[in-house]
Design goal:
Layout: H1 43-52, E1 66-67, E2 70-78, H2 80-84, H3 87-99, H4 105-113, E3 119-126, E4 132-138
Antiparallel strand pairs: 1-2, 2-3, 3-4
Length: 139
Amino acid sequence: MSSQLPFFRYHPEPVTTGAVTASGEERFNGEFADAYSLDGVSWEVLQEVTRRTPSFHAWQDPRWLVHCQGAAAYVGEVGYTKLAAHPEALEQLRTEMRLDGWHDAQQREQFLQSLGHGATAMLFKCTVCGTHLAYTDAS
């Protein structure tokens, strides 16, 4: 099936991430992703992500991350071990957690190390500079 799919710049592996599965049905003229998190991107990028890029499954509403004034590419859902391979994404999460009121460093680290067990991280990669970014998602 993947050989029949076009290349999606902002979700390059939709079959691997489970966002796209084989089906005999075809659907058109819909939106794949919500535009609310795509602040600061051009109209063209907004259209490409919302109208021509498969979204991904999340417990909460999926949000598309932005870096270098453009949409980042969705890499996949990861736990702590895979996230730790991208220290810039892990540090970004620590910063966001501090800003969201997680002042206890030990609590932050316990939560981050539990990713993959009840909570997860959505990993992205900037299509301009290659920086990895993430946000956490939980039920």
